[in-house]
Amino acid sequence: MRVIMTVVLSVMMVSLGGQAASNAAAFMDNPWGASADAMGGALTADSGRIDAFFINPAGLVGMPKSNLQFTSYRQLITNYTTLVWAVPYKSGTVGLGYVSAVTDLSMETTIGNGGDVVATGGSFNYVGQGLVFSLAHPVAARLDVGASITWIQESMYGYQANGRGVDVGAIWRSPWLASKRLAWGVSVRHAVRPQLTWNTPSGASATMPQRVQLGMRVSPTPEWLLTTDIQQIEGYDSVILVGSEYRVLPVLPLRIGWQPAQLSVGLGLWLNASMQANVSLATPLKNKGKHADLDVVRLSIATVF
């Protein structure tokens, strides 16, 4: 049995290494909160909200108060949890984030003498964890910059892979249409690409691809925000992301976002002067069929203090 399980584990590790061009530590691809998810992740040029943390670190500039946000969602058989804390200082902002992804796959078993299933070894549970430290600061009257350092760990069946990376970003607020909050942004996630090497006998490794986004933000009215991004992931074609937010009431923003393969909607609600709840629903536009479990609902609770 041990020999069989060793072969199975080796095949799984080879499969993981074979996806190095796109899926290394994939749980870090879009760990943002429900607000950003409802707007299709198109927030590269937006600033002053905590959801910018995982999209463009420069967007943390402009937060008036400290902000703590908890996000939870489930996608297929994986549970995701995100916790982000951002604190303004002078004219800049410092942030700390934690991401967790846990997948309950199976455990090594055999059939006992009585026909019962008996555990004989370790679990194939997958656990991914990420720790992110961000710093954002204005460098000119209309230019903000930011950077994040990321530590990533993946573990499965007693083996681990570790890696580190760096994200960078900038936002420029246009002097034209200033009343419409016109701004442009750029972010490079994995500017220093994390390379995760497993401590298996084969030493399989995988490198996270760079993700470049160029974005624009504009507010046609004080209640209405429009955003659009062009996203280029290494090894893939460029795609356009579109998002919109409209405050039907000062405490009730409605949101919608579009990607080529996904439509998302959501809303927020200020529960009191210091606490806000956000929820989003993302549904695939292709190949969904009757599989409602492909829909992803995110819930974020944020407190301002």
Write the layout of secondary structure elements.
Elements lengths: L1 H17 L15 H5 L28 E9 L2 E12 L2 E12 L3 E5 L5 E7 L2 E13 L4 E14 L2 E15 L9 E10 L2 E4 L6 E3 L3 E11 L2 E10 L5 E11 L2 E8 L2 E11 L2 E10 L11 E9 L1
What does it look like?
The structure is a single chain. The protein is mainly β and 305 residues long. The protein is 7% helix and 57% strand. A 14-stranded antiparallel barrel has the order 1-2-3-6-7-8-9-12-13-14-15-16-17-18. It has a two-stranded antiparallel sheet with strand order 4-5. The longest helix is centred in the first third of the chain and has 17 residues, at 2-18. The protein is globular and about 75 Å long. Mean pLDDT is 86; it is low at 1-22.
Give a quick precis of the structure:
The chain has helices at 2-18, 34-38, and strands spanning 67-75, 78-89, 92-103, 107-111, 117-123, 126-138, 143-156, 159-173, 183-192, 195-198, 205-207, 211-221, 224-233, 239-249, 252-259, 262-272, 275-284, 296-304.
What tags apply to this protein structure?
globular; single chain; Porin; 14-stranded antiparallel barrel; mainly beta; 305 residues; disordered N terminus
